[in-house]
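Example 3.2
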Amino acid sequence: MSKPPASSSAAREALRAFAPKLVDLTDNVLFGDVWERKGLSKRDRSLITCATLIALNRTEQQVGHFQRALNNGVTKEELLEVITHLAFYGGWPVAMSAAQVAKKVFEGGDKK
């Protein structure tokens, strides 16, 4: 089973206490089933997920998924290329925000 994106266990447990079903579905359906399906590699799923989070400007979720992407074999150069490519399709502001998140992740900061 895949693990959810890195997050502090205290924050995760606080969310579990507040929204237990949401956390259960996230752990068991999203990461226990969807991420484990054979149709795409985890690397490809990471690229797709990162691109979606960039286009939707979900910077809080980008941190964990950018880290996951690196762990799944996506290179820093590839992630930056996705961000640059999406500047033209998702908008310059979302790409600039994602680049700032990527910089922090690459430097080892914002480990959630």
